[in-house]
Structure formats: structure tokens, C-alpha cells
Amino acid sequence: MSISTLSSRERARQARRESILEAAEAVFSERGYPGATMAEIAARSGYSAGNLYNLFASKEDLLCKVLNTTGALLVARIANVHAAELSFAELLPRILREIFAFVEEHRGFLSIYLEVTLATHWDPDRFGEGFVAVRTALEDELEKNLEPAMARGEAPPIATTVASAIVIGAIHRYVALWVQENRSSEELWRDAPELCSALCAALRITPLPNTLDLLQPTQKSVQPATFELAKTASSRS
């Protein structure tokens, strides 16, 4: 059902849900999962605690919805790149561009990801589904484009699972360091062309002329943006 066909009540409910998810992403990022409270998330979103519990069963449920909803945005961006039907040498820098633009906009999401998966209280039975779903979707998007690329002779015939693991693993490490060391947006983009070149070398793909020029900052922001999402959410309360 499209937004245009929703009733006014359904649109209001959807807007409320999106505001709560945005506030939750900010609070989880700032406080960590153990330190975040539903009361603070409610206050940050501008809605009552009752509204939160009408939409989300618990703090754990809310975290999982944040992970699934925000992660799905990234998967959709990658899918849109793949829909262009370009060669893999053309796709790779565009994939990186979309991923870096996403993490620049959703630094809080990456903070949550790292805090939950790397902390001692990580419980894959409770929180693993959202992370696994996002990673699996990204791997699937890469693999379904690598297979025809290999068939066309654009890339050597190596296992697509290995190739996607190389790409996703390298990007994960690169982004994790950026978040953990609180680096600026300028630093995120600065080494992106070199990362793309290294991935091409690992996959034995020759980069096309000028494609690395695609990996330029999306905006002139050079300051760390850890709490940018939180500031936006705070402005409503």
C-alpha cells in the first residue's frame, strides 16, 4: 500500500513510528543499549511512553526494528545501483559511494551495530536476526551481480561467496574504524578511492577510467557527525 492510499489515521501512525525510530537510533547510539530507556526515547521523539508501547513491545523489540528498518534503507540503495545494469567494474565504485553516503547519514546506526555486536552482552539469539538479515541481503545483492559479470568475462571465475566476503569484510572494517575513532566525514571519503582500487585488485578486476572520481564527498562536512541524528531529533522536543 502506497502512502497516498493510506488513511489520515494510518499516515499519522506511520509518521509517529518513523519519529520514534529516529529518536531511538539517536538514544541507542548515545547511551548504548543497556543505558537507553524507553522514557528517554519517548521524550526525544515527542510522544508518550504509551505511544511507544502501542507500536513496540519492548526496548529489545524497538532496537530490532531500528536495525531492520535502517538496514533495509542501505539494502535498497545498493539494489537501486544494481538495477542500472552496469558492468561490475562500474558498479563497485557506485556501491561504495552509496554505502559511504548511507553511513555518513546514519552514523548512529553504525554506532549501535558496533556497540551491540562487539560488546560482552551481545546475544545473537536476541539481536542477531536483524544484523544477519542485512548482511545476507547485501551479500545476495553482490553475488547476483558477480555471477553474470564472471559469465561475461569481466571478472575471474572465483567463488561468489568469497568475493562478497572480501568486499563486505573490507568495507565493514573501514567503516568500523571510522566510527570507533570518531573520524570526520572528510576522512571517510578521503581513502575511498584507494579502498576501491584495493578491492578491484583483490577481485582481479581492472578499474575503469574516471570511475574512482565517483567517490567524492556528498557534502562539505568535515566535522565528526556522531550525534547529528540526535540533534535533529532533539529539536522536536
In short:
72% of the residues lie in helices and 0% in strands. It has 237 residues and is an all-alpha fold.
- Computed over alpha carbons, the radius of gyration is 19 Å
Class by helix and strand content? mainly alpha
The proportion of strand residues reads under 5%
Please give the share of residues in helix: over 70%
Q: What's the helix count? A: 11
What would CATH call the architecture? Orthogonal Bundle
Low-confidence stretches: 219-237
Number of strands: 0
- CATH third-tier fold name: Tetracycline Repressor, domain 2
By CATH reckoning, the class would read Mainly Alpha
What's the CATH H-level superfamily name? Tetracycline Repressor, domain 2
Instruction: Please state the overall shape, judged from the principal axes of the Cα atoms.
Output: elongated
**Main beta-sheet annotation:** none
How many structural domains can be distinguished in the coordinates? 1
Write down the overall mean pLDDT.
78
Q: List the helices and strands in order.
A: HHHHHHHHHHH
Q: Span from first to last CA?
A: 31 Å
Task: Report on this structure.
This protein is 72% helix and 0% strand. The chain has a single domain, classed as Tetracycline Repressor, domain 2. It is built from 11 helices and no strands. It is an all-alpha fold and 237 residues long. The two termini are 31 Å apart. Helix 1 crosses helix 4 and helix 1 crosses helix 11.
